[in-house]
Amino acid sequence: MVDAIRLPLQVFYEREARHPNKRYLVQPLPGGGLEELSWADVGEQARRAAGWLRSRELTQGSRIAIISKNCAHWIIADLAIWMAGHVSVPLYPNLTADSVRQVLEHAEAALAFVGKLDDWPGMAPGIPDSLLTIGMPLRPDGDFDYLWSDLQACTPIQDQPVRSADQLASIIYTSGTTGMPKGVMQTFGSFGFAAGNAIELFGIAEQDRVLSYLPLCHVAERMFVELSSIYSGQTVFFADSLDTFLDDLRRARPTVLFGVPRIWTKFQMGVYSRMPARRLDRLLRLPLIGPVVGKKVLAGLGLDAVRYALSGAAPVPEALLNWYRRLGLEVLEVYGMTENCGYSHAGRPGKFKSGWIGQNSTGVEVRIAEDGEVQVRSGATMRGYYKEPEKTAEVLTVDGFLRTGDKGEQDAEGNLRLTGRIKEIFKTSKGKYVAPAPIENRLAVHSRIEQVCVVGDGMPQPMALCVLSEIGRQEAANGSRATLEGSLKQLLDEVNQALDQHERLQRLVLVKDSWAVDNGFLTPTLKIKRNVVEGTYGPRFAEWGEQRDPVLWHD
């Protein structure tokens, strides 16, 4: 464990002094081309922006919003806010106007940086009239009170403020599945503890490269990209858009990569769209040819240089982990929450244990409560929820442990296995309790199922609502529906055989809709909003429950 916590700004100044001309941030530009910023460039722009912020004479610790997709100036704006003595409040770049206003008013934001966005007209009405806006270099069309160029015309600050470990660095609003998101208060000390220990744990260093594509406003990307880059000196490449993602990946050829299960599934589906699964699997089994084929597949994805591949936010089907392992890439699972900087548990290379996430990270204490809840404590734990002392008391115990809300167990080697959510467990009409997550994990191993949500509150038996993968939809549309149905019926039988009687699924319902962030079915971190799924399809549950077919098509 890192003995003395080195704080983010302190580490940034050290890196800037050690290798000022080293490439730090690589930003794709509209219409083609790249902007490459060195550590000195980033430091200069951040200091000028900090000088402008100081000239506003805001109260120290004022909250300043960042509303933008990932880009180089997201990180520079964050550094400037810290240097000027304030607190950054990042917002998801796809929020509705109402959600934007909700967060900005709750945080009492004094200013807002506005950058790269897809639907600024839809978000702009959520900006209070009194809130001044600053247009970043990559910004949408519109009127802003100030532009980044105005800030760069200012004299850079001459001092090197560090901020103390107990000072607030950022308020990270959780994506949440219901109601008002909570503002998680993280300090410079908690950021430093998590980032400093994480780069030691994985051996990330100056020669490493990372691609930033998941929302920087989320704690995982914040830690894995922004904070890790400051502490390790790695180069950060930014993805331009979903359309260019694979090209961006090949350009960066990252040596470390963090993804969520849906991303790893999409990579696999992309490979299968170019080569039939059976043929690829057959080639991978060949003793001499298999490793060569695996390397070519990884190179085609831009993953051939990856040393560490991590996945978080939800469990990864074991079949998918095995598939990557056969390609020559070990995907390690990590576990954490916004409330502990995403720093809790991580798999270790060569120590994979089927069905388990991995060991607790350096400096993390773990205990399992009487009700099976996983509770953790470390220097990465939040100060609390902003303006929410009662909710803070609900999740932080008197002795400083964080109640995760996840049920789980830990083995003698420290491996953690999650068995469900405390609050997601539902009761059937027979009075039996069912944890949906383990059942969903069993169903998700099927290559034609992309998303699944098990429902059953107040029903005689649970059922699973499934979204087919792109290949599955294509097969169904091209006359292979019967074959697909047969495969899914077999899956249902196999899963039910492994479940207790009260947990067994009465059927699979293949919904026609796509579950995405844009239509409200997923959080910005791609977690399924169960309340939205149940609210959308709930009126059909009774009807579907009366059907005889084990696989239903929701046409």
From TrEMBL:
Boundaries of every AMP-dependent synthetase/ligase domain copy: 14-386
Annotated InterPro entries: AMP-bd_C_sf, AMP-binding_CS, AMP-dep_synth/lig_dom, ANL_N_sf
Gene3D superfamilies reported for this sequence: 3.30.300.30, N-terminal domain of ligase-like
Domain of life: Bacteria
Keywords, alphabetical: ATP-binding, Coiled coil, Nucleotide-binding
Coiled coil: 481-508
Catalytic activity: a long-chain fatty acid + ATP + CoA = a long-chain fatty acyl-CoA + AMP + diphosphate
Record has Coiled coil as a keyword: yes
Name under which the protein is recorded: AMP-binding protein
Species this chain originates from: Pseudomonas zhanjiangensis
